[in-house]
Amino acid sequence: MKFSTITSHAVLAVSLAFTGTFVAVAPAHAAAPMQHKQVPGFYRAMIGDYEVTALHDGSAGIDSSLLHGEPGLIQSLLERSFQNDPKNVSATVQGYLVNTGSKLVLIDTGAGGHWGPPALGKLVQNLKASGYKPEQVDLVLLTHLHADHVGGIYKEGKRVFPNATVMMKKADSDFWLSKEIMAKAPEDAKIFFKVAQDAAAPYIAAGKWKPYEGMDEIVSGIAPYAIPGHTPGHTGYMISSKGQSLLVWGDTAHVLAVQMPHPEIGIAFDSDGATAIKTREDLLVKLAADKTMIAAAHMPFPGLGRIRKADTGTGYDWVPATFLNLK
Ligand SMILES: [Zn+2]
């Protein structure tokens, strides 16, 4: 045996034996301290020539009583997905950064810490971890003006994305920025109006708040996609490049375990519940048929996946994208 192949423990035992003081010595493995840190919250995918980065804003729990359905059915669907606390159903929030090669476009911005538990508001931190800077963002596209989508655009009254134009469907801007509608809203809904108005203010002052009415392409390969019902102007975005496509669907669904098998179950956050349900049912039929990749703000991070008809005959399965290395 060559000396170099002898382990250090063996060397220790032999040397102690030669001195006549051999004692049983346990291997000197120090207890490794736990790290208590998660991986950075970003995930990259390519859609044709476009680089898409999913950015995690945080994970939170929502109360299943917000769902509009038969409580026994909801409970059993949650249990089937190992969600055993109906008051704290796991939910995530994410936005999507699209680098077209000439423009950097952020679709939805997370809560920015303006709403929800402190676990939310990490999107900018994850954007930086992914290699970009907020000042590089040219355009922010919003699916709607709920706080978990618009809250990330401002901090302490200032723009987080100082060089970005912010665009959203005009119907959403008109609704959430209206002081008159806010005054008539239930007390617990006023916070949604306040965050939208506070978020918009510094961009309006800078001439960078640009609601749109049409459905034409906004930048090359990124077009609005009508998904009505959740809010007055709720709109997805279809990203297309080199024959591949990705639909950023905003809040088409919130609770995977319940609304995929039973799309007819709505949620209290919907402005127009009946329209939101009809939209979801119709969209799921289409997406299951054409197998379009989806980027979903509230499906488990990174929220990239497809829809297929469930084997049970009712409803759909969410099929998450597999982790891919990039070349
Ligand atoms: Zn949302």
TrEMBL record:
Gene3D superfamilies, per database record: Ribonuclease Z/Hydroxyacylglutathione hydrolase-like
Q: Name one Pfam family in it.
A: Lactamase_B
Q: State a single Gene Ontology molecular function.
A: metal ion binding
The keyword Iron is assigned to this record: no
Q: Residues in domain Metallo-beta-lactamase? A: 92-298
SMART domains with a match to the protein in the record: Lactamase_B
Signal peptide annotation: 1-30
* UniProt keyword list: Hydrolase, Metal-binding, Signal, Zinc
PANTHER family attached to this UniProt entry: QUORUM-QUENCHING LACTONASE YTNP-RELATED, QUORUM-QUENCHING LACTONASE YTNP-RELATED-RELATED
Q: Which family does it belong to?
A: Belongs to the metallo-beta-lactamase superfamily.
Q: What is this protein called?
A: Beta-lactamase-like
